[in-house]
């Protein structure tokens, strides 16, 4: 019984320790490593620009369905005009960051793990070391910088399209007066909501890169190992986003409480 309990616990502690060591190497690379601006630009295009269609579609339809479901409930209370405020706060504080992070974990995180894992099993990472190129400087650091820049912007984009889609659903499909919908949306949306979405995006970006690159650097046993590492990267990144989202929500709502004066 103790072995059955202790073995997974020790495995988890070992995994967290490896992530901390990788994070330490990344920090050292950021402070002392060589800056590779061309790789950074390439990663920003791959992570930020090419992820826009997925993020826009996700944000728009999440905002639309949230507005529809909220209006179905609010109509019984004669509070349909509050639907815009509900979607705005929900998209900025919760759904925008978490769903965008999960979508990026699947699209970008899995790609990172597969690319680096393939380089690992084909000994290209060892070749980088033989040429005095640090793998962290070359493979991980540009991805981390590109991710922490791109993810907050993508979350903002997802939230904006979600709010716009909710306006269409509320005013066109449900017939809520545009003036009241816009008034309550603007009145109930605060700068704190934007701060929370940006902070969550920054944290989620670090988690995706850290977990995905770790799985790639630890890949072994050929194509089978790369496939397993890619799957783990997506699953572990998504779980980490959901877990951290809860604790960040509790912390951020203490630091940035929802204003009652409005």
The end-to-end span amounts to 56 Å
Count of domains = 1
Count of DSSP strands: 0
Number of helices: 9
Strand content: under 5%
* Percent in helix: over 70%
What pattern of helices and strands is seen along the backbone? Answer: HHHHHHHHH
Unreliable segments of 5+ consecutive residues: none
What would you call the structural class?
A: mainly alpha
Radius of gyration equals 21 Å
Give the overall form.
elongated
Chain oligomer state: single chain
Average pLDDT rating:
89
Q: How many strands, what sense, and barrel or not for the largest sheet? A: none
Tell me what you see in this structure:
This protein is mainly alpha-helical and 262 residues long. The protein has one domain (35-255). The chain is 85% helix and 0% strand. The chain has nine helices and no strands. Helix 3 runs antiparallel to helix 4 (83-121). The mean pLDDT is 89.
Short description:
The chain has helices at residues 2-32, 37-49, 52-74, 83-121, 124-130, 135-173, 178-188, 191-217, 222-255.
Provide tags for this entry:
elongated, single chain, mainly alpha, 0% strand, 262 residues
Give the topology.
Elements: H1 2-32, H2 37-49, H3 52-74, H4 83-121, H5 124-130, H6 135-173, H7 178-188, H8 191-217, H9 222-255
Helix pairs in contact: 1-6, 2-6, 3-4, 3-6, 4-6, 4-7, 4-8, 4-9, 6-8, 8-9
């Amino acid at each position: 019984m103790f072995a059955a309990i202790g073995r997974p616990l020790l495995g988890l502690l070992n995994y967290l320790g490896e992530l901390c060591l990788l994070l330490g190497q990344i920090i050292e690379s950021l402070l002392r490593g060589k800056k590779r601006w061309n790789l950074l630009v390439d990663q920003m295009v791959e992570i930020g620009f090419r992820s826009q269609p997925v993020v826009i579609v996700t944000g728009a339809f999440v905002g639309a369905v949230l507005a529809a479901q909220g209006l179905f409930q609010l109509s019984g209370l004669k509070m349909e005009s509050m639907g815009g405020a509900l979607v705005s706060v929900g998209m900025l504080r919760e759904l925008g960051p978490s769903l965008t992070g999960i979508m990026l974990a699947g699209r970008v995180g899995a790609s990172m793990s597969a690319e680096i894992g393939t380089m690992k099993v084909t000994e290209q990472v060892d070749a980088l070391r033989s040429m005095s190129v640090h793998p962290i400087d070359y493979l991980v650091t540009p991805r981390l910088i590109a991710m922490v820049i791109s993810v907050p912007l993508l979350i903002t984009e997802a939230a904006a399209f979600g709010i716009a889609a909710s306006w269409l659903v509320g005013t066109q499909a449900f017939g809520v007066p545009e003036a009241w919908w816009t008034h309550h949306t603007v009145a109930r949306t605060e700068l704190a909501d934007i701060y929370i979405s940006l902070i969550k995006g920054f944290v989620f970006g670090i988690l995706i890169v850290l977990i995905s690159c770790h799985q790639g650097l630890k890949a072994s046993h050929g194509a089978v190992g790369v496939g397993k590492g890619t799957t783990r990267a997506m699953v572990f990144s998504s779980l980490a986003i959901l877990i951290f989202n809860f604790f960040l929500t509790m912390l951020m709502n203490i630091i940035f409480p929802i204003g009652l004066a409005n």
